[in-house]
Write a structure and sequence with these properties.
This protein is of the alpha/beta class. It is 42% helix and 16% strand. The strands form five sheets. Strands 2-1-3-4-5 form a five-stranded mixed β-sheet, with helices on both faces. Strands 10-14-15 form a three-stranded mixed β-sheet. Strands 11-12-13 form a three-stranded antiparallel β-sheet. The N terminus is likely disordered.
Length: 555
Amino acid sequence: MSPFHQYRAGGYGRQSKARANRSEVSTASQHEAARARSDQMGATWVGWYEDLGISAFSGVERPDFDRLIADCHAGRINLIIVYYISRLSRLDPLDAIPVVTDLLNRGVTIVSVTEGEFRRGDIMDLIHMIMRLDQAHGESKTKSVHVRGAKALARELGGYVSGKPPYGFALRPEVRAAADGRPIAVQLLDPHPAEAEVVRRMFARMLDPDDPANINRLVAELNNDQVPTRGATVGKMHANSVWRPRTVDRILRDPRVAGYGAEIVYVPRPDGSPSKRIDHYRITRDADGIPVTAHPAIVAPVQWFEVQARLGRRPTPAAPAPSLLSGLGALACECGSPMRSHRNEKLAYYSVYVCSRVHGLKLPGQHAGGCTISQRALDDYVARRIFALIATAEDDPDTLDVIAEATRRFGVASADPAAVAARGTMSGELDEARRALDELYDDRAAGAYAGTIGQARFRTSAAALNGRIEALTAQLDALDAAASPTLPIEQWLAEPGEDPIGPGSWWDRTALPERRAFVALFVARVEVRKAPARGHRAPVDTRVSLTWAGVDADG
């Protein structure tokens, strides 16, 4: 290349991890050295390109590197200045050389501040560059092997190796002995006093029996009470950060707050490589499929599983309305939408159940307009159907499944708190184990577990999960059997010939909450069809289908 002033220089720097305090000393030093070299060569400084938090060994996209190459192709830059040649790439030289030779063939000179110049037409320069790229690749590969080995050893000793601690926890160093007696320093997770209290508050609000919060309400409460985020308490970068729904949702879904070990699953990029955005968490399991308890829990597992069940419902159920059937999760319109209570406090006769489908949203085959039914008429019909069933329970074998399921539900509802907690934990773990098994099969269908070793790992994991599912199912059955008292049918029924819901009956003397609990024992679904004509009061039994607990719909 002729005189130096014809050079149009672009500097490039890269740092594998952006520093938490935003100092970025490494790239700042690279920038300063590159600019000084450009001035020394009399070049025109076009600009600085840098990629933070990205490894040149990973193959992940590097936006500023790609922009630099594009500017070279466009002729805006003909001199690239780096601190080390390894800043360009730590990939295998066979993968990196095509990029470098393409630049050299386009007349671009590459300058390493510490290693010299590499120009087109100088075979020794090219050989030197190949040697440096190979050395950088080897160093990075060796370092990666050592890091993976150290992490594996720390993990075997119970250490935490996933970088920053999850919200609610702090790292505590401890020295443990390896199998050969060597002392190994590991990091352990301990509840962070202040953050753990915030996590407990989140779970308590989600599980509040009287006024449970949803994600958006929880976010509003935390921000209104000026509860600091982690970013607001560490460093200046996020000092003014606020709580956001995604952050709270991620904390609530993290199984590590319940003491479980967990693997983070990231959202994949279009090329299949993992991004930095968390998709979900996968609970770590032992050889028998049992979740591994890795550190002290912030909340009890039963609380964590209950919140997962609530987060899985969209939208969050409203608090039960002051009517017999609404809010039980059983009352639905023929279109599939839940029915809500619309009460007339002055004239109870005009209180109705109403289809909650959004106005104007009608799919093919669904009813037009609204769908309502008298509360008094439907409540009377459902109650009489239940009493008719239990009155003939001893003589009708077709009701055995209904009575058995009602007995099971009655036992669960009346169990002591310890048994309820145990059942909740088992039930939640069973749901999570089934989800993990589905995910395992999905991964296999997507091409994972290929080859002999992969197939063996798949079979081992599938067998462990299936075994755990069978064991949990058996344990739940045993709990239900132990907590199945006799239904107080005689207490519920009226004397022969008397109205079971008439004046003086058990039903008449019982408050609404107990009536609702009674209905929930026997009924799985009450489906209401739209009246055949506007203003036409069709008999209730022609519009209602009732599904008993434990059996199919009766139409």
